[in-house]
Structure formats: C-alpha cells, structure tokens
Fold 4-amino-5-hydroxymethyl-2-methylpyrimidine phosphate synthase.
Amino acid sequence: MQPFHLSATGYNLNYLPEYIALRHGFFREQGLDVTVNIPTPWDGVLDALADGTADMALGGIWVPSMYRDRVQDYTVFAQIANRCPLALLTHGNGEGFKLADVIGKTVLMKSGGGASVGLFFKMLLRENGIDPKSVDYIQDLDGVMLGNLFQGGMGDYFVTDNLSALAMAERNSNVSVAMEMVSQGDIPWSVYYRETATITADVLDAQKQFCIALEKGIDWVLQHDAESFRDELAELFPTVPVEVAVSVTNGFRRDGMWTSTSVSRTGFDRWQVGLAGARLVKEPIAYDDIVDNGPASAAQIEATFLWHTARARL
C-alpha cells in the first residue's frame, strides 16, 4: 500500500466524495493509503508541500494562481468541487431576493479559511453589472463570530458556507437564505495540487490512481439520494442537523457540485477573469499553464474500461 498524504485547507460538505471514497475503501482498492490532515492556519498546506510531508494539497485554485511566477509554481491535477458552496443569508424573509438588492447595503463575509468568499461574491456582482464598490463589507473576522453578530443585527446580509447557512436558518426564524450560490454556474472551487518541480512519473501514476478512486466516490454520491446514507452524513457532520445535511447534499447533487475529477475549462476561464478582476493575477492564466488534466483523463479512461469489462462479464 502506497502512503499518499493530503493536506486540506478545511473540512467541508463539498468534499463529500473524498470522504465517501475514504470510508468505502475506494483509495485502498487503488493501492493508496490516503491520510488527511487540516493544518491551522490553513496555509500550512503550502508548508507541507514544501517540506515533502504532503503529497498534495486540497483547496482553492486561486492560491496556485496568485503564487505562479511570484513565489512557487503549483500544478493542479484534479478537481472535487465544481460549484461555489456558499449561500447568502438575509434578515427576515429572503423570498423574491435579487442580487441588486445588496447595493448600498452591508454584507458580512467570513474570511478565516482564505479569500474565496469575497473573491466569488464580488466576481458575481461584476458579472451581473453591479459595482462591488456600491456595497459595504465586513470580512476580516472569523465566520462563527460574524454569524453571531449577524444574528444579533449586524449588517444586512451574510455570506457563509451553504451548510452553515441552512443550519442557521433552521435554528433562527429571524434569518433566511436569500441565495444558494451552487446555482450560479461552474467554477473550479476546490482542487488538488502540488509543487510543479516535484512531479515525477511515479507521482503522476499515484495521482491517476487517486483520481480513479475519487471518480468512484463522485459517482457513488451522484447515484445515491442523500436520504439513503443519512447515517453517514450524521457521522461526518455531527454538529449539523442531519435533515440539513441531507438537504444540502441533494441540492449539490442536483445542481452540479460534483461532476468529474477534470477541471472544467469553461469554469477555469471564468474564475481566472474573476481573479484578474480582484488583482490577484495580472491577467487570466491559460488553462494548460497551471492544470495538468492527464491524471484525471487517464483515470476516466481506465474507469470506463473497467466498467465495460465488468458489464461484459454479466
């Protein structure tokens, strides 16, 4: 069994296929002993890559993008989350909400896990013809702190992860979800990457095996209504009401959160425009300059071959 260590920037429901692959032994079927840690602070994933204690990092593609040609070059080899897993909370009833409603208002945005929340929300505003400067932001505080303050009356809207948003709305009748951003188009929200200079033929082979198992995890989640594995969801997310975890999971299944391990070129290009608009990159980076789709593509070909072989034996 080959050790294959992952350093992740967080623990989130949008990583669910990976957790399923671990729990169901899909990685071990591919000869990989996958282990995971979540450093504090989250940017410790980069230290783990640098000192060789991690074989890959899991997080936002905005990090490899802004580091490229400045600090360190990283190569992305797989994707797990194909949509943004955030939601926008409002005071009172959010029915009939339009994005233009945020103009002139104050939006709270958690930032403890990195810059993705603000990057995406402001990109969404620009895509809809809204000047991000027309909105006031409070975004330099921890998500739990901001959640408590929002419920206490601070600000007009609060952007947080979808799971926390629905859990908060279920507990507190004075707030509601105005928008679930999983419906707002493809974007490579969460990807796997490592330092470009450390990639060898053996590394590429291990990445392919990882992708085969992750593809199986994605397929498993897509083929099973969340209600059928609610007990697993309860174990994975014990602090959230299981009904909320089931609801969010099925929403993600329906709205394209999980598609394949390949990074969508359309989603990638969209996100690069957003990163350039936020000045994290001077100009959008070309797909092939930062993404190597080889391991994911090879995994999909092999998985298809194995599926057809198994069908032929029936």
User: Anything to note?
Assistant: The chain has two domains: 2-82+187-313, 86-183. The CA atoms of residues 5 and 55 lie 5 Å apart. The chain is about 45% helix and 20% strand.
